[in-house]
Amino acid sequence: MTESWESDLSVSEKEALDQLKARMSADMIQELHNDTYHIYLFLKDNNFDVNEAETMLTQTLKWRKKVNADAIESFDPPEIVKIYTKNNRIGFDKKGGIVHYLPLGKLDVKGITMSAKYPDLEKTLVKELEEDIRILKEKRKSPNGPFSDVVLIFDMEGLSFANATDKKGLEYLIRVLRITQNYYPCLIRSVYIINSKFSFDSNLLFCFFVYEVSKFYKVCSNEKETTVICKEILITIF
Q1: If 220 and its partner were Cys, which of 22, 173, 215, 225 is the partner (CB 3.0–4.6 Å)?
Q2: Please, are residues 190 and 136 in contact by the beta-carbon 8 Å criterion?
Q3: Quick one: CA dihedral 182, 98, 163, 210, positive or negative?
Q4: Which helix (H) or strand (E) holds 218?
Q5: Where is it found, in Gene Ontology cellular component terms (predicted)?
Q6: In angstroms, how far is the first alpha carbon of the chain from the final one?
Q7: Strands 98-102 and 89-93
């Protein structure tokens, strides 16, 4: 049965979707194999290039097996990481997307990088992303229908120059952000950077790798802009 959203696809997009579904093997994750909209996102993220979408899908499934993503719910993050991930999922925006608030400016970068290994940070992010997808899929109107996406608010208040330029911390952050780019197509809709006090050059460096996982980002440099943005996107509090 064709979902209503599929009727809005162009002929070429529908053909690409049919081709990608035909290439999917039966041993792929059953939930994904039967989820037409989720498969569609791999195509959308690759401009409906079937070969590129298939490559991304194959790499994603291999990576999921490597990190044991299907059983990630049982993973217990290090205590120092829990401090910053607890209650960061604050509500839904006007489009039904999940809003995350992340106080990056107050991160104990050296403490985290000294106390937690990269695989722990990777699994922590995967656990958060998998929970996002679970929540979004539960909210959709039909089993194979569209589900919304995620909005990130990065609060830079309290960010020191030392943390902003910490090489290992930046490397960790870039690596975990690229996970969303490489394995979670179209999940991050937008990123808002609030309470930014650094120079334009520093913001540009941060925005450069934020752009890799989001089609849209906005830097809010004052309280008025931050208040307006928060009122615009947030309508339902968890």
Answers
A1: 225
A2: no
A3: positive
A4: strand 216-219
A5: cytoplasm
A6: 34
A7: antiparallel
Q: Domains of the chain: which residue ranges?
A: 11-67, 72-216
The model's pTM: 0.84
Q: At 86, list the tokens.
A: 């607890």
Structure tokens at 209: 């790798």
User: Which residues sit opposite 237 in a β-bridge?
Assistant: 91
Q: Kindly state the tokens that stand for 190.
A: 């937008």
Return the amino acid letter for 118. Answer: Y
Q: What one-character DSSP code corresponds to residue 222?
A: S
Question: Tokens for 172?
Answer: 């960790």
Mark out the alpha helices in the chain (DSSP H runs). 11-23, 30-33, 36-45, 50-67, 79-85, 109-115, 118-139, 161-164, 167-183, 200-210, 223-233
Separation of alpha carbons 205 and 225, rounded Å: 21
Mapping DSSP onto H, E and C, the string for 126-164 reads HHHHHHHHHHHHHHCCCCCCCCCCEEEEEECCCCCHHHH
Summarize pLDDT for 145-189 with one digit per residue, the tens. 899 999 888 888 887 777 777 777 777 777 877 898 899 999 988
Tell me the residue type at 87.
N
User: Any idea what DSSP says for residue 94?
Assistant: T
Give the CA dihedral 98, 54, 60, 125, nearest 10 degrees: -20
Long-range interactions of 164-170: CB distance < 8 A, separation 24+: 164/198, 164/202, 164/206, 166/109, 166/110, 166/113, 168/109, 168/113, 169/107, 169/109, 169/110, 169/112, 169/113
- Give the CATH number of domain 72-216: 3.40.525.10
Q: Could you give the CA distance from residue 108 to residue 89 in angstroms, rounded to a whole number?
A: 20
